[in-house]
Amino acid sequence: MDTDFLIDFSDLNAPVVYLAGAWVTGKQLPEVRIIQEAICTCINTVFLVPGDNFEWDSRLLAFILAAERLCQEHQKKLDISAFPESVQQLYDLAKAVPPNISSPEESHNHWTFLKSFWVGAIETLGFIGEMCIAVGRLFAGRSHMRAVDLLFCLNQAGPKALGILSLLSVLVGMILAYLGMIQLSQFGAEVYVANLVALGMVREMGSLMTAVIMAGRTGAAWASELGAMQVNEEVDALKTMGIRPMDFLVMPRLLAMAIAMPLLSAYSFILGMIGGGVMTTGMEMTLRMYLHQLLQSFSPGDVLAGCFKGFIFGLLIVLAGCQSGMNCRGSSAAVGEATTRAVVQAIVYFVIADAALNLMFYKLGI
Amino acid sequence: MVMDAPKTIEFPVIETRALTMRYGDRLIQKNLNFKVNQGDIFVIMGGSGCGKSTLLKHLIGLNSPAEGDIVYNGESYISADEQSRQQMRQRWGITFQSGALFSDMTLAENVALPLRHAGAHRSEIRDIVHYKLSLVGLGGYEDYFPSQISGGMCKRAGLARAIALDPEILFFDEPSAGLDPLSARRLDDLILHLRDSIGTTVVIVTHELASMFAIASNGIFLDAVTKTALDHGDPNWLKEHSREAIVRSFLARGETEGSQL
Ligand SMILES: Nc1ncnc2c1ncn2[C@@H]1O[C@H](COP(=O)(O)OP(=O)(O)OP(=O)(O)O)[C@@H](O)[C@H]1O
Ligand SMILES: [Mg+2]
């Protein structure tokens, strides 16, 4: 059965719209605009009346409500008293509470992007400040941190990450060696591959790779953990118990990263060099030559600089992860967003910090 | 914790003065003035979305008011420094709408956390935890994690945590939502009992008319349209005598069509 309608203009002041056929979900229904003309001609009321073979479900009510909105825009009334009782009851129910007229908060500023960037920057600075104060409290012995939590976080940030870190470090070492071998053999300078691997791993790749892995693994996990706690009102519960979330939740993670990252970076240096060794001895160099050259090519200062980089990256992972977790508001969707933001922000921070640190080391002659 | 002898009542336990609450620019409630006295069971009523949870969040210091003041035992919370706020907060117990248990701790550890934070002794903590969990009917669930128990049980465990320190004021957001009628009834009894035995003052947000009439001794009715309090007083009295028709019909709904607000 088809849907149909008919507008009877016989009385121009009170046009009658007949809705015939099946007004049900799934049929091609005419749009509300069809009664526009009726609305424009009538004096104050449009009559909506069921026609032949009339059938209905929620779709009809949706149509009636839309028609009513249209009428209201033109300051006209809609009369549906010819419809069955049940239709009218549902209509009354839908109209019982006037719709909300305010809209969800949205800024109508053209500079929204810049503004949110600015607000974000200020918030980040605030978070850094709070973290510093919390560290101060920790050293003053007035922190609410629990040793158990620190151990737990250390476990998350350290041993559990060793597997993937080993794999990637060895691979990066091999790649460096391979690239170096191909290029340097053109000049007969294969032996300097060891320098390339050592310096490449220690000064740059080792701590950066470690940081990226940890940001994706642990930083993201922490962001979603804190985000879920925030959404679940657990953070509020902590606050009302008089326990500072900064001390209780962020500090153990900060300490754990600050301890784990330099160690993991050093571990990555070693594995990278091993990887390089495997690659070079597999090509046209002896292990002895490689080792001999390797040990000459970097100083303890380089290692310290690399570990320091790892330390800074660790702090940045915690900053990105914990801040986006703690700023999580509302729903479970926000937790997902927080996780994404934690990783993306951390990587942006790494690049900036890496450039700044390299510049600093260069100026200081380290 | 040692129980003090009941104090002489000089000040209301909680008093709000011209309290106005906003989220950003959006007004939620304005000009709220009410007092909660020692031993009151004070209920915050009103339709959905009128700002009851928001009011509770202001009372427990999670949100700060746009205007006005909140005074505890004669001491303003708004102008107090962090240390005295901390002291005030330690005398409160709060349960959240969802329970808000720490998911990586067992029930026992959850209840023990405020005790440990207050510096209780290790040996007494275990006994207190067991006692509080038994009070809410969860004895024997000490080593369960929140994910291993039901929603209603989480709520009760949250209550056990809230009363761990024998608080002077207990705040509840929808305590009986999600509980079966028997547990809800038990909860009402527990609240009355806490009030009678240790003089706890209770502030409750609730929709359950039955429990409202059973336990509340005072209350406030918030309205979403006028964005202010429509009436104050004992719900039993308001039901018959409120000057506002909206309040009377809200409260009468319980008798005619069941509590479905
Ligand atoms: N974090 C927030 N940011 C902005 N607006 C909020 C926030 N939380 C609540 N609101 C708004 O404040 C109003 C009051 O919310 P509130 O949660 O206090 O209602 P309620 O009275 O507790 O409702 P219910 O009985 O359904 O729990 C709602 O209209 C809501 O949209
Ligand atoms: Mg609420």
From TrEMBL, chain A:
Alphabetized UniProt keyword annotations: Membrane, Transmembrane, Transmembrane helix
Keyword Membrane assigned: yes
InterPro entries given in the database record: Permease_MalE
Annotated transmembrane regions: 117-140, 161-180, 254-283, 303-322, 342-362
Keyword Transmembrane helix: yes
PANTHER family: ABC TRANSPORTER PERMEASE, ABC TRANSPORTER PERMEASE PROTEIN-RELATED
Name of this protein: ABC transporter permease
Source organism of this protein record: Parendozoicomonas callyspongiae
Taxonomic lineage from the root: Bacteria, Pseudomonadati, Pseudomonadota, Gammaproteobacteria, Oceanospirillales
